[in-house]
Amino acid sequence: MRYPVSFLILIIFFACSKNSSQPDPTARDITGSVQVFDEFGVASNDVFGVNVSLSDGSKELTTQTIQGGKFNFDQVPFGKYTLSVSRSGFGTNKRFGIQNLKTVDSATYPLQLSPIGITQMCSTTITYFSAIGKPNGSFQFSVSISPATGPSTTPRYFRIFVGLDSLVTWNHNDFFVSAIPVTGSGMSSTLSALQRETFPVGTKAWMRIYGDASPSNMYFDSSKMEFVFPCLNLTTQPASSFIVQ
Hints:
By secondary structure, this protein is mainly beta. It has one helix at residues 5-20, and strands at residues 27-37, 43-44, 51-55, 60-64, 70-77, 79-86, 90-91, 93-100, 111-112, 116-120, 125-133, 139-149, 156-163, 175-176, 180-182, 184-191, 204-212, 219-221, 226-228, 240-243. The strands form 5 sheets. Strands 1, 2, 5, 7, 9 and 10 form a 6-stranded mixed beta sheet that branches. Strands 13, 14, 15, 17 and 20 form a 5-stranded antiparallel beta sheet that branches. A 4-stranded antiparallel beta sheet has the order 4-3-6-8, with no helix packed on it. Mean pLDDT is 91; it is low at 7-15.
């Protein structure tokens, strides 16, 4: 039996299309980079060999950064992941809810993550602090640190946490502030940010202060529903109380 030329061309086309088709992708590469800072916020060129991991809750993939702080995970199965970056002497940083999804170009292009940073652990020790309640929910605090810094040198940093009981800590509090810079051996200042809903007039509030780094790797841990401050120097003093006015 003889077939028209056009029919034979169609057979060849579909045969070639079937043979050249790619399997449906189930994974893709994930790439990114890590930035490294000292405790004063100065960027470092020592970005080689930082530990990086990806976890979906049941399995964990690990690698290390190469030149330029870059990292790559080969053919990561589609799913939702937590990225963790760590190095000895530095605060671990994490990023939650990374969606590794199948897209029209997932077989060709990797999932490119935005840079993530780690910061050296803070060496600032809090040697003393106290607080006094002031009108309209504000409070005056005093803090002393060690080691002291010169007036024209890079500042050190600390972070204040306030709670409703004497057990207030970085992970048990009702209010916290951004890292505050300090030069010399300490400082006194006033904050006016306590919310009346949490701290009504007459409430006994408790404060604790820790040395912190800048920039801090503060992040929200959605698995524990709490903020994490991984660079804090946990050597500090007992909580100090004051009455909210």
